[in-house]
Amino acid sequence: MTEVVIVAARRSPVAPRGGALSRLDLAGLAAPVVQAVLQDAGLDAARVDDIVLGNALGAGGNPARLVGLAAGLPDHVSGLSIDRQCCSGLDAVVLAARSIRAGDCDLVLAGGVESYSRSPIRAHRPLDPGGQPVPYDRPAFVADPARDPDPLVAAAHLAQSDGWLRSAQEDHAMASHKKALMAETAGHLAGELVPLAGLARDSFARALDPVLLRRLKPLAGTAGHALTAATVAVEADAAALLLLASRSRAEALGLPVLAVQVGAVQSGGRPEDPALVPRQAIADLLARLGWTARSVARVELMEAFAVQALACLKDMDLPPEAVNAGGGALARGHPIGASGAILLVRLVHELQRLSAGDRGLAAIAAVGGLATAVALRRP
């Protein structure tokens, strides 16, 4: 079977909605990242076979084609855009890897891009002539409304039903911010970031004050198990891209090999409990590869909610020090269609500080009861 390798991986900083990146459209966010990836690899853009991008907020058109042409890819590089909500950026990489394994492509750019700040305002067309459009925030992901809770409501229910206290969620959020700041201070993020609009760091990370956290008003849930602005990832803007190649083409072109993509699992679970589906995806992927949880040196786990991360890690036996070593989405933000790709870019760069053969996992959930997990190995 064709071995798929990652030869370059970069991302933009992540900025909250309305922040430093708010005036950039999708091309403005992602095209510089594409160019940085190609420069890192030392690859002529004409050699790229395809670009696959995740995007979830209904930007319209084909963002992958838009970004590819804006980045200077030749006209023959077509571009494919996918939407599986939060899984989109990671799924784009899975699709790219499959196309390489199938022999259809040798070099594919893959990742995700999202602008909460520039996303369209949504409304349903009126059913009757002269009627008024009906605004809506998100589409339905399950036909039965009873099985399609708002993600915030579902997370609050999880906190209540499984007994995750507000204080435990706040402790997790503080640890995420602390790890992000430590990674930034140590220079561990510099190699993956592409500065945009004068921003060269993830602007949301900060030292959280536990006294201040206790004063925050609940966003959802009961008082003892409530979710707050500190324990829910902020809406954000960002882009992340990776360059994937067949091992043979990478060697023929003398491209650097940063990681080997050794497997992926895309899972479905109960739509009512989307936060828990990554547990199954991770377990299935470990079993498929014959890995133990303790054998994984780095894990990038999505933190859309603190309670989600806590619930996914419970009884999984993953090494605590391996999880989100450079902080998670609670310290960065959640640019929906780009978040999964950001996890993988982070994982690639985390593995560069470890030894040959070390293993890594990235996992993310999506509304509708979906999850994707991807496994990498440092060569």
List the uncertain runs: none
Name the overall outline.
globular
Computed structural class? alpha+beta
CATH superfamily of one domain: Thiolase/Chalcone synthase
| Name of the level-1 CATH class of one domain | Alpha Beta
Classify the helix fraction into a percent range. 25-40%
Q: Which CATH architecture of one domain is right? A: 3-Layer(aba) Sandwich
Structure annotation, total helices = 11
Description of the molecule:
- With 379 residues, this protein is an alpha+beta fold.
- It has a domain at 4-117 and 234-253: Thiolase/Chalcone synthase (Peroxisomal Thiolase, Chain A, domain 1, 3-Layer(aba) Sandwich).
- It is built from eleven helices and twelve strands.
- The protein has helices spanning 26-41, 63-70, 88-101, 151-162, 166-185, 210-215, 247-253, 277-289, 306-313, 329-332, 336-351; strands at 4-11, 15-16, 50-54, 80-82, 107-115, 123-124, 134-135, 236-246, 259-268, 296-301, 359-366, 370-377.
- The strands form two sheets. Strands 1, 2, 3, 4, 5, 8, 9, 10, 11 and 12 form a ten-stranded mixed β-sheet that branches. The chain has a two-stranded antiparallel sheet with strand order 6-7.
- β11 (359-366) and β12 (370-377) form a beta hairpin.
- α3 (88-101) packs across α11 (336-351).
- Its EC number is 2.3.1.16.
Topology of helices and strands:
Blueprint lengths: L3 E8 L3 E2 L9 H16 L8 E5 L8 H8 L9 E3 L5 H14 L5 E9 L7 E2 L9 E2 L15 H12 L3 H20 L24 H6 L20 E11 H7 L5 E10 L8 H13 L6 E6 L4 H8 L15 H4 L3 H16 L7 E8 L3 E8 L2
Parallel strand pairs: 3-4, 3-5, 10-11
Antiparallel strand pairs: 1-8, 1-9, 2-8, 5-8, 6-7, 9-12, 11-12
